[in-house]
Structures are given as structure tokens and as C-alpha cells.
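PROTOCOL LOG
Step 1. Enter all chains and additional molecules of the complex.
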Amino acid sequence: MRHLMSPLDFSVDELEDLLNLAGDIEKNPQKYASACRGKKLATCFYEPSTRTRLSFEAAMLNLGGSVLGFASSDSSSASKGESISDTIRVVSCYADICAMRHPKEGAALVASQKSGIPVINAGDGGHQHPTQTLTDMMTIRSLKGSLGNITIGLCGDLKFGRTVHSLINAMIRYPNVKFVLISPEELKIPDYIREDVLRANSIEFEEVERLEDAMGQLDILYMTRVQRERFFNEEDYIRLKDYYVLTKKKMKLAKNDMLVLHPLPRVNEISVEVDDDPRAAYFRQVQYGVYVRMALILTLLEITV
Amino acid sequence: MLNISGINEGFVLDHIQAGMSLQIYHDLKLDKLDCSVAIIKNARSSKMGKKDIIKVECPIEELDLDILGFIDHNITVNVIQGNRIVEKKDLTLPKQVKNVIKCKNPRCVTSIEQELDQIFMLTDEEKEVYRCKYCEEKYTNPNRRK
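Step 2. Run joint prediction.
Step 3. Record the structure below.
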């Protein structure tokens, strides 16, 4: 039995298979409409999430399966003090596969150690969010044609942004990928990503503070939200939350085929006027997220169509 | 030089960094053993200037070499039988350590999940870096010798 804790759990070849399957689902959704008939997905969400939970549920429903679960720790036995290990043992009796989101880092790994069913990490605090990374990779591959030979600008909260850390870790495995890290001093990428991941693997990267200085060279601009829940100090959050706002004017500096991605939800960091720009790919990204989660459910349940 | 009598059967931990012996005494849970333990602090050393030594009169099996390797793999372990050194054990950095150090990340699942072992994995042998198995919080040994 296999779980998904980090995007690096899959080798490059396995990822290729998964993304190919997701691509086939996109082209032939009917072929997969009954693939999970009789199977149940449990969504165990200990902290609020709209799109990730709905994306998982939509994925399972698209496959003909059914879903059950809870959407906050208040509505689960966690409020009575039940451990994650006990909860997953119980959930294993009700469902065939589980997607778990938890505010504590490593929670899904704890669950996987006691689980009788595959566990998908749907986000564990500021640590990992592998299905977002798979979504990002599928979006890049589908819209750019490949995962190599691109310059990716990562903008905003690079310190706490788990999607950014995961994406860097996953993308360095492809040839000729360059990163431009755009952030204020306080939200720079953590040392361990800079030293142990980028420098240790001789990956080309640069760090800049102004978005305008980077725009012209980017193939992908990955915007992130400054997340209130990652700050201990409200003052710091307020000072940094609107540090970057992508506008129509700034988009004029970008290449004609640059893509704007965002893990969503968006607050102020992308002006709504950018939504109509054909290079704005963040809503298409959401749709790819459903396909890739469908492919993941099939892969972990070992169902072939 | 202070004289401590030899031991018949047991082990001697030599070349401990000066000042570290009491921490090692506790980390190895030597206080829980019902046997003679001698701690020698600040002994003269041609190699180190000053060093600590611990002599323990009990079978070597009682000693967790993984924990000792984690604390400082440069310590020399001499096994004594019949008042003679019969073996020198090499210490290595263990691949993982269980319940020796606690994860300091307040966001780590180990801070809330009951009876979850505190496990750290060796991720960089050269820099002696361990990371929490659950949240990957970094731990660098403060006693690492340069």
C-alpha cells in the first residue's frame, strides 16, 4: 500500500506516468466516469480549506465514487481529544482512501503509519502540500509542453509558502530550470532551500526584491498569498500582506507567452483586471488540480482503466 | 594526577570533550544503572588539552552506542575484561535516533500526538545534520567538533 506525503515520493518516471494519466483523463473523462464505483474517499480536514477539499471530492465523484468526511477539527473527534492515529484507524474501516489536511506538520505521516488505507497529505501546516505541487506541474506541462527549460519566478511569501518549497524541490529534477526568487527581505526563501536544495544541486537562481526587475525573463510567474495564519505577529502580517500586487501595467513587462500561476485563494496580490489576460492561468490551474487528483486516486487505489 | 582504580569488567569512555561528561552520564541513563561509575573531569590530554573520561563497571551491552555516536562519535569506547582493554569500539553517526532529542518546532505533530516517538533522521552525514522525521525541523549537534 502506498501513500503520498511529499511530491518527491514519486520518481520522475512515476510522475510522468501520473501526469500522462491525468492528461488522458482530461481528454477522455467519460472513460473514467465509473472507475471508482463502490469506492469511498474520506476527506479528513482538521483546518478550513475550500478548494483542496472540494477538488478531492470532485475528483472522487468524477470517478464514480463517493465521499465522506469532516471539514474542521471542531466537527471531528479531535475536539474530544482523539489522536490522529486513532482517528485514521477508525476511518480505515469506513473508507478506501483518505485525504488529510491538518495544521500540524507531519500529521499525515503519523496517520499513514497506522492507516489501513492509502493516505494523501492534503496539506500539513507549513510543511508539504504535494497535490498542489502535482497541480502546478500538470499546469506547467500542459500549457508549456514540458517541465524543463523554463525560468520560474516565485513571488511573495517564500519563507512560509509551502507550495513554493514543494515546487522548487520537485522542479529541480528537470533540466535547465532556473528560478527567480522575488520577495521582501523578511519573507526570503529559508536557508535550507537555498543551501541544501538550490546550491547543493547547482541550480541557477537569483533573489530580487522588485517584481518589475524580474518580469521580462520569466516563463512562469508563480504568485503567492502572504498567509495570516503563518504569522505569530499581526503587525508583521499587515506590513507585508500587500507588498506585491500584480497589475495590468506590470504584465506589460512580461513575455507574451508567460503564464501566471497562483495556488489560490488570491487576496490582493493579483489585481482582478489581470484575470482577463490570456496569460492568467490560475483558474485553469484549478481544473488541472481535479484531473491530477483523479489520477492520484486511481494510482494509489491501483485501479487501471 | 588523580588516581581512579581500574575496572575488572566494563567500559571506559575516553576522549570526551571537557565538560561534557555529566550530560553524557544522563543521556546514556547511567544514573539508572546499579553499578560503579567514575566520572573524571578535565583530565590532561596530549591530543585535546583537557578531556573527560567515564568509567563504568557493567557489561557493554548496557550501553546504547547509537546515542553515544549521536552525542559525539569521536569518543573512544574501550571495552574492559579482566582489567585489560579487549576491544575498541568505533562510533558512527546513527541513521536515526529515537527519543533522545525533542523537536522544537511548535507546529510539529509531535507537540500534540500522544505517545508519538521523537524520531530524528540523519540527512547530511558530512555536516552532521539530523531532521525531525515528521516536520523536517533541522537539528545540528551543538557539540559537533570542528
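Step 4. Note key features.
The mean pLDDT of chain B is 88.
Chain B touches chain A through 17 residues (CB under 8 Å).
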